[in-house]
């Protein structure tokens, strides 16, 4: 169990057990807005589709570790290896496939070696297979926010050097300037908070709001997330959340996504008029 929800005196709490046990209150969040100051978006699974890339590297890691070149993941593995930090993904695989827990860091190193090599091959044009794509409707969603003068933040549990390959590729595929950092009002990656405080801890969302976007009122913002860990992080940070399930996270729990679950993902946020009427 990585987290547990409890209720006390009409307040909801979540205790996060990994890697540091911490108990958080889950504050109430608005379900509509009088004005909208900022939208913060998760990268992998919400803004970008890197599932094929992540699973390719994770599968290569397992094949190397098990010495089995035919290894394939079971369907029930997918909710546990998509949508969270790499460490938690590998922890799950160690437990499920009876690997040596003392070798966790070694397994993670193998994953990152495989993952980064694939990223560099994409960057250098050595891979023709499409492993990175924008999520459906991303360009329209981002440009609509810009036109309305709403700040946009990009949040990722990936390393910055990984985002610096993934996001330019995504922007190029949308026909936009690959200098993605000049488009967003704020970008934050795992490097800035450290492995111990990634999602479901709230640190990424707290820091981007306060330090990058200069948010004045959390109740005038919302977050777009596709995973349970990300939704918990955003809600604990005090923000409303719209869930945009990715095929790899469709078995996650979205009960804390107080703005609803967008089965058609980003286009449905526009269709539901979550912000257009208030700006």
**Count of helical stretches:** 10
Q: How many domain modules? A: 2
Q: Please tally the β strands and state the result.
A: 10
User: Helical percent range?
Assistant: 25-40%
Q: List the strand order in the largest sheet.
A: 8-7-4-9-10
Mean pLDDT: 92
Largest sheet: 5 strands, parallel
CATH C-level category of the largest domain:
Alpha Beta
Strand content: 15-25%
Instruction: Determine the CATH superfamily of the largest domain.
Output: HAD superfamily/HAD-like
Amino-to-carboxy terminus distance: 42 Å
Task: Summarize the helix and strand pattern as letters.
Answer: EEEEEHHHHEHEHHEHEHEH
Radius of gyration: 18 Å
Structural class assignment: alpha/beta
> Can you name the CATH architecture of the largest domain?
3-Layer(aba) Sandwich
Unreliable spans? none
Walk me through the structure.
- Helix 1 packs across helix 4 (104-123) and helix 4 runs parallel beside helix 6 (160-173).
- Helix content is 37%, strand content 15%.
- With 279 residues, the chain is α/β, with parallel strands linked by helices.
- The longest helix has 20 residues, at 104-123.
- It has helices spanning 51-66, 78-81, 86-96, 104-123, 138-147, 160-173, 180-183, 203-212, 228-236, 266-271; strands at residues 3-8, 11-16, 22-25, 38-42, 48-49, 133-134, 151-155, 186-188, 221-225, 240-243.
- The protein has two domains: 26-49 and 133-278, Rossmann fold (3-Layer(aba) Sandwich); 51-123.
- It contains ten helices and ten strands.
- The N and C termini lie far apart (42 Å).
- The strands form three sheets. A five-stranded parallel sheet has the order 8-7-4-9-10, with helices on both faces. Strands 1-2-3 form a three-stranded antiparallel sheet, with no helix packed on it. The chain has a two-stranded antiparallel ribbon with strand order 5-6.
């Amino acid at each position: 169990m990585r987290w547990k929800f409890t209720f006390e005196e009409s307040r909801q709490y979540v205790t996060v057990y990994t890697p540091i046990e911490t108990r958080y209150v889950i504050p109430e969040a608005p379900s509509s807005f009088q004005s909208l100051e900022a939208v913060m978006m998760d990268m992998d699974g919400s803004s970008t589709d890197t599932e094929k890339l992540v699973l390719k590297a994770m599968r290569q890691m397992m094949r190397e570790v098990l010495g089995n070149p035919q290894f394939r993941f079971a369907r029930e593995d997918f909710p546990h290896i998509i949508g969270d930090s790499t460490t938690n993904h590998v922890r799950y695989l160690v437990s499920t496939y009876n690997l040596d827990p003392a070798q966790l860091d070694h397994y993670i190193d193998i994953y990152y070696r495989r993952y980064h090599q694939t990223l560099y091959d994409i960057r250098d044009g050595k891979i023709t297979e499409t492993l990175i794509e924008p999520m459906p409707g991303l360009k329209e969603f981002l440009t609509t926010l810009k036109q309305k003068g709403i700040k946009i933040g990009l949040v990722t549990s990936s390393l910055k050097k990984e985002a610096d390959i993934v996001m330019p590729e995504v922007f190029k595929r949308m026909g936009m300037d690959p200098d993605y950092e000049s488009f967003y009002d704020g970008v934050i990656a795992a490097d800035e908070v450290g492995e111990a405080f990634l999602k479901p801890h709230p640190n990424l969302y707290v820091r981007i709001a306060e330090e990058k976007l200069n948010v004045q009122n959390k109740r005038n913002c919302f977050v777009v997330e596709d995973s349970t860990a990300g939704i918990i992080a955003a809600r604990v940070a005090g923000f409303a959340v719209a869930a945009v399930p990715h095929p790899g996270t469709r078995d996650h729990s979205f009960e804390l996504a107080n703005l609803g679950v967008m089965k058609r993902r980003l286009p449905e946020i526009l269709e539901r008029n979550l912000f257009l009427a208030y700006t």
